[in-house]
Amino acid sequence: MFILTAVLLVGYGTNNYVHAALDISSDCGILMEQTTGRVLYEKCIDEQMYIASITKILTTIVAIENADLDVWVEITYEDVYQVGSSLYMVVGDRMLLKDLLYGLMLRSGNDAAWAIARHVGGDVDSFVAMMNEKAAEIGMTNSIFQNPSGLDETTFNLSTAYDMALAQRYAMNNPIFREITQESLHKATSERGKTFTWKSKHRLVNGSYQYAISGKTGFTEQARRTLVTSANNGELELIVVTIKGGDDWNDHIHMFKYGFKNFNMRKVTDIGELRIIEQDLLEQAGFDRLFIREERSVVLRNDNSESVKKHLVLATDEPGEAVGTLEILINDEIVDTLPVYAFSEISTGSWWQRFLDWLVGF
After folding, report:
1. What one-character DSSP code corresponds to residue 240?
2. What pLDDT is recorded for position 313?
3. Where are the alpha helices (DSSP H) in 263-346?
4. CA atoms within 13 Å, Cβ hemisphere of 289
5. Which CATH architecture has domain 2-14+265-360?
C-alpha cells in the first residue's frame, strides 16, 4: 500500500479557519449539514441527557422501515392511559398506522407511540429493542432507549445533541419521514368514523421560519425543552438540535442563519477519470488510468478560510476490484472517502469506450 498525496488540490483557501463565536441559550446544541454530516457548530454535543419526545424521530423511522403503513391498528387501554400529550383515541377503535405516525410527530401523542410500538414490534419491549438496534446502526453511540415516547417517569431515554442530529439526518433520507414531518396540519378518520385534526406543535415548521421543513418538539420536567429542526434554503439543508432549551425557537433560527450565511456546498469530485498529478507514481503502481463512480460535495465556509485536499490511497491491484480509496480532507481532517477503480493498458478499442462499457455493467 502507498499513498499518492494531493491527487487534486481544490484550492479553497488556507488552513487558518477559526470558529466564529455563536451564543445560544440552550444547555447543549448542534448545527449539522444534512448531506455530509459535517458539524458546523457545537456546544456540549456529547453530553448524555434526557431527551423527551424528540425520541419519536427514532420511533417513526423504525416503524416506517418495518411495517405496512396502510394497515389498521387497534387502540388498547394501555395506549390511551399513557400520561402526557395524547391524541384522545378510543379503546377498541382502529387507526391507520400512517395516521398514527402523523399524530405521533405533529401532536406528539404518547398514546400513538405505544400503539405504534405494540403493533410494529409485537410488544413494546421488542420495539424498544428495535430502536436500540437502529440507533447503533446509525452510529448513536451515546444513546439508551427504554420506551418509544420519551416519557421518563418510570423508564427513560438518554441521548446527546450529536446522536439526535444523526437520527434526524438518517430519517430525513426517507421520503415518507419527510412527507410526514413537513406537514403542519393533518386530518385523519378512525375506522369507526371519529375524525381528528392535528396541528403541529413545531412553531418553525408551522411557518414562523420560512426555511423550516421538518422537526420535533419535546418536553418533560426532567428533560426540560428539547427541539430538533431541519431547514433548507435551496442551497443547503441543515439540522439543529438543542437540549435543555432556554429560548430554543430563537436558538434554532439563530443557528440556521449562521449556517446559511457562512457555509455553502462545493462539488469536489465528478464521475469519471481522475486527473493524477503524480503520473509517474501512478505508472509505477501499474495503472494506466483511475476512475470514480460517484460525485462528492463538501460544505465549506464562504470566506475561503478552509483548505480542501484529496489523497489517493492505493491498496490492491486485483482486476475488477476497487484499487484504493480517495480521501477528501478539510483542513487536513478526513471528511469523506470513496472507492477508486483502475484500468490497465487497453489493447482493443478506445479506453473511453471501455470505460463506458464498464460503467454500464454496474
Report:
1. E
2. 85
3. 279-284
4. 14
5. Sandwich (2.60)
Q: Compute the average pLDDT of residues 257-279.
A: 86
CB burial of 179-215 (b: ≥16 within 10 Å; e: otherwise) equals ebbbbeebebebeeeeebebebbbbbbbeebebbbbb
| Residues identified as active-site | 53, 56, 108
> Do residues 100 and 86 touch, judged by C-beta distance below 8 A?
no
Q: What confidence score (pLDDT) does residue 203 get?
A: 97
pTM score: 0.88
Q: Cα separations (Å) of 4 from 269, 278, 318?
A: 16, 7, 18
Q: What is the average pLDDT across 169-181?
A: 98
What is the side-by-side order of every strand in the sheet holding 224-232?
39-43, 28-33, 237-243, 224-232, 212-220
Classify 41-216 by CATH class.
Answer: alpha beta
Instruction: Dump pLDDT digits (tens) for 90-119.
Output: 999 999 999 999 999 999 999 999 999 999
How is residue 163 written as a grid cell?
446522536
> Under DSSP, is residue 231 helix (H, G, I), strand (E, B) or coil?
strand
* Structure confidence by residue, pLDDT tens digits, 186-207: 999 999 999 999 999 999 999 9
Sequence spans of domains, the chain: 2-14+265-360, 41-216
